[in-house]
Structure formats: structure tokens, C-alpha cells
Write a structure and sequence with these properties.
Distance between the termini: 28 Å
CATH topology of the largest domain: D-amino Acid Aminotransferase, Chain A, domain 2
Number of helices: 8
Number of strands: 15
Radius of gyration: 19 Å
Number of domains: 2
Bound molecules: 4'-deoxy-4'-aminopyridoxal-5'-phosphate
CATH architecture of the largest domain: Alpha-Beta Barrel
Helix content: 25-40%
Strand content: 25-35%
Length: 306
């Protein structure tokens, strides 16, 4: 079931009813998927609502726009403006539960042709219920028949809307085969990520995740997990991973804003580890949830009261 969406959206430079937030059918956003986006959580903490790693989300939007050549975004949207818009949106909707905010920069220019520089952009933001996109009680994954788009075609590092057709293909293929989500391999056959989450394995006590040159999105939760693990003294390695390493891993889990931290119990009809949540995933999941909800003093630096 789809998530509930809150009524008020931010669009252009003001709040409007969500039903009135439109980009044109003739815009590059619609014609070519020429928009970049991010989704950040706003959680209920002991000190009220807080956005998690808002600056990192803004910076990833900036980086995505730079990669694509959407050069009118950065001059128009400082971090301060971005935070102010998010603040107005959250205040207007007043959520009393954990929610996600989807912020998108659309190229609104009409029939501009297949190019990106010097074109008008519109910011949109809306809020929806924070429902996980993968089961939290043991996800079942299938290797995708579709490969991840390589950095030399459409970079995964850029969170560009059009590229998500690749994710849709992979996820639908998994669902059609009775699985919860897919595992993408890159053109060289190494493990990348899921349709919208990063992946970790644990082998002999070491936490391993595909490195940033494995055609992955540089996930903000991935970065957080690596930092938390290092602080906890869990050895971490970022390197390319073979598919068969997943099959023999002690633990496999995935992370992302919309996936939270979810353990994987089955991949390609093979049980993973003991088929239950492993100790490393359980430990990291607890710390991660505490970090997001302001219950871990060491990480309140990542929270923006909103
Ligand atoms: N990979 C992909 C393809 C994604 O869409 C997402 C969700 N943004 C992630 C990984 C996880 O990233 P994050 O931790 O920043 O949500």
C-alpha cells in the first residue's frame, strides 16, 4: 500500500496544496526525467522534530546537479534557503510521527531539447509517511536480470530521476519472481546495491560494503553505518564484492532512508546465515534508530531541529 502524503507541498518559492504542485508535460523534468532528488527523514526526538543529516542531503543534491550539468540550482539555492524551505514545509504540515521529505529539483524549461545547462529549475518538497520499502523481519532478495547503469552511462552517484527506471526494472523483476527487492550487479558482475538501498555483508566479524566506485549511490545511511561501526570497533572494508560472497556471508543487511536497516534472510533461493537477524545488524540497527531519534548524544551533530 502506498504511503499517506501530507497535504501541503513546497513548490517554487512557496507552500501550495500538493494537488496544485505541477511541472509541465512539456518540461525536461517530464520529457527526460531531468530532475535530481533526495529523501531525508524527519523523526520525532525527545527534543521535538529533527531532520537527519540535512546538510549531507543538500550537498548530495548539489553534487547530483553538478554531475548532470544543472548549473542554475547551486546559485539559486544555498543550504540556508533549503533548510528554510524544509522548515516551512514541516511547520505547515505539523507531522507528529516520523516522516520522509522528498526534495526534488526539476528542470521546468519547456521543449529545451536534450541539454542541461542554463535551464530554469523548480524546487519541490513534500512529506509522506515513513513506511519501509523492504520488510524489516527478513528480506528476500533476487539478483536482478538488469545490470546497474554504469558510471560512464548514467552515474549512480547522481540521484537523477530518469535513472530510476533502472531501479523500477530491477524491483519489478524481483516482485514478479516473488521476492521483496533486487540486488543489482554492475557491468563487471560485482555487487552494487538494491533498487533504493545500499548493501552490507558480514564475514568473520568484518563489515564489508561495495566501495564508492562500484556503481552505487553514495548513501547517507551507508556513510553513517560505516562511521558507527568504526566507533564500535567493528572492522570495516569498502571493496568490490562478488555475488557468491553474499551466499556464504554470516550476515547480509541493507540500509537507506526508506529501507531503514533491514536484514536479509534469503538471496536467490539460498538462506543467508542463520536466516534470522545477525548480531552485527542488530547492534547497528539499534544505534542507527537511536541516532535518528536523538537518543545517542554522540551523534546529535547530525540532527537539525525542525
Ligand atoms: N541506493 C539507491 C539507489 C537509493 O535510491 C538509495 C535511497 N536514497 C540508497 C541507496 C540509500 O541512500 P540513503 O542512505 O542516502 O537514503
Amino acid at each position: 500500500m502506498a504511503s499517506r502524503i501530507y497535504e501541503k507541498a513546497y513548490f517554487g518559492d512557496r507552500l501550495v496544496p500538493l494537488v496544485d504542485a505541477h511541472v509541465s508535460v512539456a518540461s525536461s523534468a517530464v520529457l527526460y526525467g531531468l530532475s535530481v532528488y533526495t529523501v531525508f527523514p524527519v523523526c520525532m526526538t525527545v527534543k521535538g522534530r529533527a531532520a537527519f543529516r540535512l546538510r549531507d542531503h543538500y550537498q548530495r543534491l548539489v553534487n547530483s546537479a553538478r554531475i548532470i550539468g544543472m548549473d542554475t540550482f547551486e546559485p539559486a539555492w544555498s543550504y540556508e534557503r533549503f533548510e528554510k524551505a524544509a522548515r516551512e514545509l514541516v511547520a505547515a504540515n505539523g507531522p507528529t510521527e516520523d516522516v520522509f521529505v522528498r526534495a526534488t529539483v526539476h528542470v521546468h524549461e519547456l521543449v529545451a531539447g536534450t541539454r542541461s545547462r542554463g535551464l530554469g529549475i523548480t524546487m519541490s518538497m513534500f512529506i509522506y509517511e515513513a513506511k519501509p520499502i523492504v520488510p524489516q523481519d527478513g528480506a528476500r532478495l533476487k539478483t536482478s536480470v538488469w545490470r546497474r547503469i554504469p558510471d560512464f552511462s548514467i552515474p549512480s552517484r547522481a540521484k537523477v530521476n530518469g535513472a530510476y527506471v533502472n531501479s523500477v526494472l530491477g524491483k519489478q523483476d524481483a516482485i514478479d519472481s516473488g521476492y521483496d527487492d533486487c540486488i543489482f550487479l554492475n557491468v563487471s558482475g560485482h555487487v552494487c546495491e538494491l533498487s533504493a538501498a545500499n548493501i552490507f555483508i558480514v564475514r568473520d566479524g568484518t563489515l564489508i560494503t561495495p566501495d564508492a566506485t562500484s556503481d552505487i549511490l553514495e548513501g547517507i545511511n551507508r556513510k553513517t553505518i560505516l562511521e558507527v561501526a568504526r566507533v564500535l570497533g567493528i572492522p570495516t572494508i569498502e571493496r568490490s564484492i562478488d555475488l557468491t560472497e553474499l551466499y556464504v556471508a554470516d550476515e547480509v543487511f541493507v540500509c537507506g532512508t526508506s529501507a531503514f536497516i533491514a536484514f536479509v534472510k534469503e538471496i536467490d533461493a539460498r538462506a543467508i546465515g542463520a536466516g534470522t537477524m545477525g548480531p552485527v545488524a542488530a547492534r547497528l540497527r539499534k544505534v542507527h534508530a537511536d541516532v535518528l531519534h536523538g537518543a545517542n548524544p554522540a551523534y546529535t551533530k547530525y540532527l537539525t531541529s525542525i
